[in-house]
Each structure stands twice: as structure tokens, then as C-alpha cells.
Amino acid sequence: MGKIVKVGVVQAAPVLLDLDAGVEKAIGLIDEAGKQGVQLLNFPETWLPGYPWWIWFNPPAINMQFAAPYFQNAIVAGSEQDMKLRAACRRNNIHVVIGVSEREGGSLYMAQWHYGPEGQVISRRRKLKPTHVERSVFGEGDGSDMFVNKTELGNIGALCCWENLQPLSKYAMFSQDEEIHCAAWPAFSLYAKLSKAFSPEVSINVNQIYGVEGQCFVLAACSVIDQPIYDLLVKNEMHEKFVEVGGGYSRIFGPNGAEFGENLAHDAEGLVVADIDLGLISHSKTAADPAGHYARADALALMHNKNPRRPVIGFGEATSGTGDVAAKGYSPAEELVD
To answer: Where are the catalytic residues (predicted)?
Structure first.
């Protein structure tokens, strides 16, 4: 037996293109988790204000109708919406990792914000490389976004969607003694009818293998496409082939690949909650620690540039810092008011 942590993952539809309504729904889910005694809650990818599914099955000219509303509803660090989320975390004494479309200046980023139980901002990270057509909407993160936070619950890391497939990105996280991994995904209903590469089974297996490879617990949060989102996206028979209602497959996996918690139906909304025993990690590490005794640095090694990449650097200004919100260009933590 080791440290027992009660964790939860969200499986729910976002309120697409409505940031304020989405924040209220997120607060409701945080409050629900708080009532259940959850200590760490993980949300899906870009859950605020929802994932831009239209980029996968429309020409760019058609997608321009969504560009301004999506940009305007992206969340800004230090905003009123940010403060409301932080207040909810403090009220429930809970860690929350939430996937957001983050707006800074004239650009958007696929981000994961980690709030602490006192409502503090522990970290804000950005997806290192948006996948395929996501690059038409979002900018890139950098090496400083690949970090693991040491907390009272354990060492907590986070990656978005297909970052969980990237061998070097995974290894960068494993090397930092990651114990609890927060994986953020959109709904697994896009292209599910057409391509095995996008099938729910493949993505579920990615999360399970991440836990086995890194000997860590994986909290895989997956959103849902509900009827309002479906009606917004699907306008013809061709669109019907690309997306379907549902697609929620949130899971909790252990370091040996075992599942924890009670899974929901793929079209249901709610939380998957479980007590996890961090002591199980040592059993798996004994057999294979990928960045420790099972590594061969003389033959294979990873080079990780942890310095933030900025378009403008002042003379004499420091650029180092991993997971440090100040070093990444964010304002210092604002006073939190309920």
C-alpha cells in the first residue's frame, strides 16, 4: 500500500462556442467532483470552448464562419473566467487540469491549465505540435511545456491527444518521474466510421500503453459530441459520414494496464472516479523503469530543450524555466476573490 489518491476524469460535452456557459458547466463538474471527495480532476482537450471539429471535414473557406466566434470565446489567462475556475478549485479543495483553447494576443493555443486546491495556478502548458489541420487554428508550444509538477498528491504531468503517441514526448515525461498523467482528448467519434487510425479502440489503447510504458497512472479525459454540437456540424450527407453523437471513452489506467473506476456509456456525461494506490507504481518500476535502470544512455538518449521560445527577448532577459508561469510570459498570480 502506498499513497491513496481519489481521482476523477470528466466525460462530457463542452458548450461549443460559448465560453461563459462552458465555464459554468465546468464549475458544476468541479463541484460534483468535490462532493465525491475527488482530489484531482482531469478535463478533455480544449473543453473550453470546445474542440473545433469542423476543421476536419470542411474546406477553409467554409470554416471561416467559425473563426471569429471561436477566437472570441477562447479563454485568456487572468480573465474573469479564469478566476471563476480558480475559485471553484479552492472552494472544493481540489486539483484540476482543464483543457482550454487559450488566447494570447492574436493567437490561439491548445493548452492545459493546472489549478491547485488553494485556487493557485500551478502551471499552464501548450500542446507542443498541433495535429494535422489543427495547425490551421492553433500555434505551437515549446520545450518548456514538457514538464511534470511535483505536488502533495504526487508527480503530475499532462499531454494533449496525439502527444500521447509521440515517443520522445512520452519519454520526456517519463524521465521526470511522472506518477499521474492527465491525458486530454476530444470525442472519439470523428472519422470513427471511416478510419481504424481514429477508432475509439486505438485511442483507448494509447492511454493504456502510456501507463504501462511509463509505469504511471493515466487519467484519460474524453469529451462527448452531443446533439446540439452534432446539429451545428452536420449539414449534409457527407458530414454524416464523418461524425456521430457520443464518442466519450474516458478511462483510468494503472501502471500495469489495469482499469480503475466505473466507465460510462460512450454517449453519457459524468465522471469516472477511482481511488488509486501510488504504491502500485513501485511494482512496475522494479521490472522496467524506462528512464532509469532500464535505460541505456550510452546507446540512446533524449535531448530536451526546456527553454521557452519567445518571439522577442529583452537584452539580458532570462529565458530558462520549466512549467513556471512567470517564465512563460504570464502575469504573476492575481489575487483570487470568491
So the answer is: 45 (proton acceptor)
**Quick one: fold of 4-287?**
Nitrilase/N-carbamoyl-D-aminoacid amidohydrolase (3.60.110)
Please name which of 231, 257, 235 lies closest in space to residue 245, comparing C-alpha atoms. 231
Catalytic residue list contains 45: yes
**Reported pTM:** 0.94
pLDDT digits (tens, 9 = 90+) for 180-237: 999 999 999 888 766 666 789 999 999 999 999 999 999 999 999 999 999 999 999 9
147 contacts 123 by C-beta, under 8 angstroms: yes
The span from the CA of 101 to the CA of 112, in Å, is 9
Percent of the chain with pLDDT over 70: 92
Q: Of these residues, 32, 45, 240, 317, which one is catalytic?
A: 45
Which residue's entry shows cell 472544493? Answer: 92
The arrangement of strands across the sheet holding 180-185 comes to 148-150, 155-160, 180-185, 217-222, 251-253, 259-260
